């Protein structure tokens, strides 16, 4: 079954948007503040970086050439997008409650 028309551009733009939201969060959160980092700060940054890696891989996954015409990578790209979004929001929650 083929994916709906516009799935590839939609996934790529959603990934780029969440990447920008995550970068804005890290910028306002205080990555550049002077002083030592705590363990919770490292957890926030590690969660965000892994989320960025997942979001950055979405366009690569979805645009990878496939051997057969009917085979698509939409499902894997959707899972990578979900993982990236979940990790970015988890890092936001950790920063709020830690």
From TrEMBL:
Keyword terms, alphabetized: Membrane, Transmembrane, Transmembrane helix
Membrane-spanning intervals of the chain: 12-31, 43-67, 79-97
Name by which UniProt lists this protein: DUF2269 family protein
Domain of life, source organism: Bacteria
